[in-house]
Amino acid sequence: MLIENPTQWVGKVIEEYELKSILGNGKIGYVFLAEHKVLAEAKRACKIIRSDQLKTGWELEIQKVKALSSVPQIVDIQSWGEILDEKGDSFTYINYQYIDGENLTQYLSREKNLSITFLQALGEALIYAKHACDAMDLKHGDLHEGNILISKPDPRLPDNPIRIYVTDFGCGGSRNQLDPKPDSQQVSSIMCRLLKSVRIDQLEATERSIREKLIIFFGKEFTDSYRMNVSNNIESTNLNLWSLYKKRISEAQVDAANAGRGRSEINVDDYLNAEALGYRQDEWQNLFVPEILGASAFTSRNVTVITGARGCGKTMAFRRMTLFLDELIGESSGVQGADGVLGFYLNCRDIVEAFPYIPSKLHDGQRRQLIHYFHLCWLHEIFRAFGQRNIRESLSYEWVYNWLEKKFGNEFERPLLTGVEPLTFLSNFLGNQKEKCRLSQSKKLDHWNLDQIDLLDELYAVASENIHWIQGKPFFFFLDDYTIPLLNVALQGTLNPIIFKRRANLFFKISTEASNSFLRMNGKKALEVTHDFDLIDLANETLHIEYEERADLLNSIFRRRIKRIEEFRELSLGLDEILGISDWSFNEQARRLRSSKGSSSKAIYYGSKAFISMWSSDVRSMVQLFNELVRSLKVKDVSLLPISPIDQQSRYSDSGGEFLNLTETIKDTGFWDEDVNRGTTSKNFGTKLKDIVQAFIAICRWELIEQPLIQNQDRENPKQAFRIEIIDALELTEKTQLYYNGLLRWHVFLPDWRGRSVRGVMTPRIFLNQRLIPFARISFSKKDSISLSNKEFQQLLNEPKKFERYWKEKRRNLTKVKVPPESGQADLGFDKME
């Protein structure tokens, strides 16, 4: 209970000190500025509390804190006693050393750009205070920003420094207060949040290194659990925090110096996975490219399923377009249209790791438990992002407390201590609830608090009413790795009603491995593309964008990474400068291949055009390939550029061969029914896929090199095809569907969903992954096709080696009788061939 009419105390005299004004208040008391009656320069901070609010034994706590009175970083307690108010009620006063300044909360509201120097000073003060407490076996228990004081600069000292203090060790606190919080956890939370809020682009090399070391130190090494483990390992009772801190600062200075001398090697292929970036602001700024492939699908106000080759950048785009990273980095992602939405990210592995043994059939309690956990994950992410935003604009979150009280009832208890950062408290509460849910057996609970299908809609409505900066912006939920069998059919069937629910202000963006790797059912209703969701295949997008756009996208990615090479850092180099400008057209390339009979002795695949044409959305593999070229050839001297054509061709061909060999390791994709025994189909699955690819490559090469020239672009050119076109309706058997799914899911072939119309039926076109073209020794041109009937296509999938022989014989016969293959006379005796 706070003091009624606190102004009644202004003007009162306590121990020769007159209370002049109110400095602030806590949960149960007020703090006053007190000046000596004679020596006005002598000041105190006097805290007054109702005596009936004091906890038992509070005097002993003050005596313990007095043991810290000589520690410069801790505010001293000078005296204490009892006084009566005008009504005769008993109050207790505690006189503290007066610090002329402000608390950290006030400082942060004023200072938007924190310096590493300040954060070092803050960190050192907290380390000193923690060390002193450990030495005296004391705990603060409530170390939030309001209890950290920052003095004004002291003009009496040469450097005019500020000083940082820790105050209010809970002395005299309410007897109803919450359990004390671990000091190390609170310091770690404060320091890591502030360090991660610093703008990396404004730091010098040494400051960047210090920041990284401090994040590691306060995020891990400062914690009680880490210190306990290390102490047990070294058979020591304590880990000297100060020595470890100084060691990390020294390491940072050495790292920065070495980087300046070029000793710290940074590679083009650093951070190939978005997960590896963590929350490194500098690397997100250096490596993220806002001109992402298929950007409109990421920002459209529709539920969208996004597929693409592994490493195509789905995860990086999802994570970077979140509110959390916008606030952490200090600027929006730059993706066109992203400014109009508020994004949040969740990887499905978080669910799978919490419930690793989800049965194939779920009872009602299990479904509700999973929905409850799914919502907890999103709430945790939403409030984490709100907390990052709150660093620069502090708002009241009383509305969240009210909302959660309605949801959780007595399970939710508001924080009783003053100064507890609300979103930190909420994060801890939700984290504890996730752990409770994970460990609970659904059969033992008759309800789950967050199992409503429309819970996120409800949260959006109440948040919009209370947070002015939402301003009608929709919430985008970026759900990554929504893929069978990572999430089984039963789990996807449970979550689909939430994900594919039609809403005005909430939209899910789902990434999955392929168009056939997620459950297209919502209850008993089949989900329809364009009606229930949009589908975009990023690999398919690369088939249709113009070459200039493709080149611009890749150059925007690679220019950033080329600058990571020390020798190239100050130069403006792109793919043209590193690889050379290609001096051939696709037709000319095809004619060279034909004249050389496919020989690899003459360089045909080289220059930026070949590299760019190989891209089939898989950015990661292209970055790896480029880095291998640069590193293995040790191209560090600009005068040696561009890399020689024959070296480029050799590496491109090897890369395609490696990719094809990996196809052999692919497992059976028949994940829809795990109980089906597929016998030899499953055992030899990858080998069959490789055989199919090799047969198709052989056909494409034979058409290009051995078959007559065809009319193309006003002259006769070799036939250039790496695309299959089905000339009638595609109807596959169970077995051939399995092979077809495998080829598409692992992006060995890329589907062109725009397809073609055959007698009113849309049939797909299927492209060979362009990364395989230099290995296959065929042309990059997409103008021609290998036209197959549905029956022939199934024979290619079933018996690829036999089909290769059949195809060549068929084409020879067609050439003799001059029947065009597009006429539909395709079956010339396949069943009769041996």
From TrEMBL:
<dbReference type="Pfam" id="PF24389">
    <property type="entry name" value="ORC-CDC6-like"/>
</dbReference>
<dbReference type="InterPro" id="IPR056955">
    <property type="entry name" value="ORC-CDC6-like"/>
</dbReference>
<protein>
    <recommendedName>
        <fullName>Protein kinase domain-containing protein</fullName>
    </recommendedName>
</protein>
<dbReference type="InterPro" id="IPR027417">
    <property type="entry name" value="P-loop_NTPase"/>
</dbReference>
<dbReference type="GO" id="GO:0005524">
    <property type="term" value="F:ATP binding"/>
</dbReference>
<dbReference type="InterPro" id="IPR000719">
    <property type="entry name" value="Prot_kinase_dom"/>
</dbReference>
<dbReference type="Pfam" id="PF00069">
    <property type="entry name" value="Pkinase"/>
</dbReference>
<feature type="domain" description="Protein kinase">
    <location>
        <begin position="17"/>
        <end position="383"/>
    </location>
</feature>
<dbReference type="GO" id="GO:0004672">
    <property type="term" value="F:protein kinase activity"/>
</dbReference>
<dbReference type="InterPro" id="IPR011009">
    <property type="entry name" value="Kinase-like_dom_sf"/>
</dbReference>
